[in-house]
Amino acid sequence: MSLFPIALYVGFLLGALNVPASSAILPQLVAPQYLQAAITLRMFSRYTAMIMGPLMGGFLVAKCGIATLYFIDLLSFCGALYGIIHLPIVNSTSNLNKKNWAAIKGGLKFVASTPMILGALYIDLALAFFGMPNALLPIINDNYFNGHPEYLGLMVAAPSVGGLIAMLLSGKLNHLNNPAIIMIILCILWALSVVGFGVSYSLAFSLLLLFFMGAFDSLIATLCSTIIQRVTSDEYRARVSAVEYIIGNVAPQLGNFRAGLLGMIIAPNIAVLIGGLTTLILTIITPLLFPTFVRLRRTF
Questions:
Q1: Which ranges of the chain does DSSP label H, i.e. alpha helix?
Q2: Fewer Cβ atoms within 10 Å of its own Cβ: the N or the C terminal residue of the chain?
């Protein structure tokens, strides 16, 4: 039996522990007025890695071999460990005497009783589950763009490029008085881009729409994290970050399954169109479902 699947599962398990912890510690490392910038920088590094990692890996694998690349990857973690060791000690205000299940229950109760968090997670969930067309990109490329692998590569890379450029131009997000309204507007624009992609038969136009999808998605994710971090107390920060992580990582995978299943039943472009329209409707009714979220104002 190959050890690769086991190593992959262990990697996902450790990531599930690492991401909530790193999200929870961030507000305690920077002043409140710099929180938006810190989250933006984290998103920027993520999109940079998503672009540069596969690019460098594809170039080096033919020259060095896969084993050498994994060894280089292992060495790269030494830098991360060095940074972790030099982090300051952060005192948690949570009750460490609580049993695990009681702590989890308390975190879920806090999320359920905080409309601002529910509104941000609702938009993120609607976008990730109903609107993501990633699983249908290969069949769309086969059906409408002659199945050229280089075209598929461009389609896969376009959202990451859009997200990276959006992060470079996202400084204005730090000065928004009503980030919830902007988040809703961006999600509407994102859904309209998905609808346009569903009816597009032009490769150039499709790539442009995918580029905008990635740009809007990165800005929405940044605003979502900022809103959640700002309204969450230190006591619940790690548990709320865990909920955000689950939605941000599980919902897209389930959304890909939904899109792939729907694409087997109907035409793939119609499946994309339905997903975009569903996301659009769910976003438009957000003020009706979460009126407190819409009235959220920047407090510093």
A1: 4-29, 35-64, 66-85, 100-112, 115-126, 137-144, 149-168, 179-199, 203-231, 237-265, 268-284, 286-289, 291-294
A2: N
* Domain presence at residue 35: yes
User: Rounded to a whole number, what is the distance in angstroms from the first to the last CA of the chain?
Assistant: 55
Instruction: Tell me how crowded residue 42 is: count the other CB atoms within 10 A of its CB.
Output: 15
What angle separates helix 268-284 from helix 179-199, to the nearest 10 degrees? 160
From the centroid of its chain, how far is CA 282? 18
121 neighbors 224 (Cβ within 8 angstroms): yes
Calculate the average pLDDT of the chain: 79
Number of domains, the chain = 1
Least confident of 6-15, 212-221, 231-240: 6-15
CATH number where 217 lies: 1.20.1250.20
pLDDT surpasses 60 at 99? no
Q: Is residue 167 part of a domain?
A: yes
Distance CA 209, CA 195 (A): 9
Give the domain range for residue 94: 11-294
pTM: 0.74
